[in-house]
Amino acid sequence: MFYKSTRNSSVRVTSAQAIAQGISEDGGLFVPESIPQLGADELEALGKMDYRQRAKAVFAKFLTDFTEAEIAYCVDGAYNTKAFDSDSIAEIAHLFEGTYMLELWHGPTCAFKDMALQILPYLLTVSVKKLHSDKKVVILVATSGDTGKAALEGFKDVPGTSIMVFYPVDGVSAMQKKQMTTQEGGNVGVCAIKGNFDDAQNGVKAIFTDKDVAAKLSDAGMMFSSANSINWGRLAPQIIYYISSYAQLLAQGEIEKGEKINIVVPTGNFGNILAGFYAKHMGVPVNKLICASNANNVLTDFINTGIYDRNRDFHTTISPSMDILISSNLERLLYILSDGNDALIREWFGKLASEGRYEVSDDVKQRLNEEFSAGFCTDEQTKATIKEIYGKYSYTCDTHTAVAVKVYKDYKEKTGDTTKTIIASTASPYKFSASVLSAIGEDTDASEFELVDKLAAASGLAVPASLAALKDKDIRFGDVIDKNEMEAYVLKTLGI
Ligand SMILES: *Cc1c(COP(=O)(O)O)cnc(C)c1O
């Protein structure tokens, strides 16, 4: 299996190269040149395995340049009960008849980003070794809140790496900020920028693709890589939990062999839902992929009209990890839906950069409609949904997951579709205690950790130990910089 760049189909690299590099030199993203297949019998067989065995089977199809022992080393190191508070790694909870919550937040930082960022440091260090490079890998991360902490926790004190995280100064929750600014480890750095997530992401992308910076780094014995979902090493692990959850529901008799399901994903950068798309095209029977957005509904409009237009107001919402107007992974989807037409991708993403807008071709629009349904909701609707499912089903969900539940309910009402459905539950409600408590009608005039105790009393959910421990930790990182100072900041921190 080789990987191509979405902006130049003649670039062809191994998975180790794609993961080590993060992004192609032409600014494109790496995609597998074909989608490996998973037969119905194979899917059934996976149902009898545990999460680690399923992960090994799926990785073997994508990382064909890795040995079985290398894959086992990565998987066993990442997915264990030292890091996850559940031996099933991803839990499935029943919300109501035929609707399953795929809880992806049982890892060390309590958001779904752990599913990929616990294993990415293993994949990356093995990849670099396979390429016979002795360069130190410098990970740059732009975060809307959850990726940053998950990446810091994954890369903390990993030999041969260092990591630097940029987050929007007013764009993350109190708990997310506390998680990042108290981060421990000798190879980590965290810095706030005056701007939003898109500014942080653009800044990081610009540093990555700057040839002068790359040369300076190389002279100093270092190389950049990415822990954002532009890195294939982030996406591949996310495909696994969709396959795993389908196989598990099959083994439990919740669904029948070959039965189609819907997958609903609360979306920002389009990474998590794209992983669902890959799972579908590998062979998981999927009816619709339902893309759920908050008030930053650029993807809803895109899927419904084929016009991507980021020229609109940016909203700061109670689901901050989805406050994004430039969804990077859409580039991978459009490359696939246009049958690998790199010229079209260059044209569209060139227009996105220069005019903030592009319109896809009619056949791509049609394929988008066949695969996806999309909707969005406001903060008020998100809160009403948290309250409703808390009252009706005694299930406490976070603000991002609630967006998905609301969009799914709207979809069901509009279409009458009764297909069984998996909803990606992307964060622990404890990461957004104030919003969740206020949604269920509790007073929130208290400190963050008093709110945590209050939420524990209201929800009956155990407080994740990693969040409780933050209470007594000191702030280590307080820098706030302008968005155009990021490159200088990186070079200064690296001492070059
Ligand atoms: C990152 C994140 C999302 C959005 O995921 P994408 O892969 O960017 O679409 C949704 N919910 C939570 C809690 C997140 O942290």
Topology:
Elements: E1 3-5, E2 8-13, H1 15-21, E3 30-32, H2 40-46, H3 51-62, H4 68-78, E4 91-96, E5 99-103, H5 113-117, H6 120-130, E6 136-142, H7 146-155, E7 161-168, H8 174-181, E8 188-194, H9 197-208, H10 211-219, E9 222-226, H11 232-251, E10 261-266, H12 271-282, E11 286-293, H13 298-305, E12 307-309, H14 330-337, H15 342-355, E13 357-359, H16 362-371, E14 372-376, H17 379-393, H18 399-415, E15 421-425, H19 433-439, H20 448-459, H21 465-468, E16 480-482, H22 486-494
Helix pairs in contact: 1-6, 2-11, 3-4, 3-11, 4-6, 11-12, 17-18, 17-19, 19-20
This protein binds pyridoxal-5'-phosphate.
Residues 111, 113, 146, 229, 266-272, 321-322, 400, 426-427 line the site of pyridoxal-5'-phosphate (PLP).
Largest sheet: 6 strands, mixed
Helix content: 40-55%
Number of strands: 16
What is the residue-averaged pLDDT? 96
CATH topology of the domain at 91-108 and 233-466, anyone? Answer: Rossmann fold
N-end to C-end Cα span? 37 Å
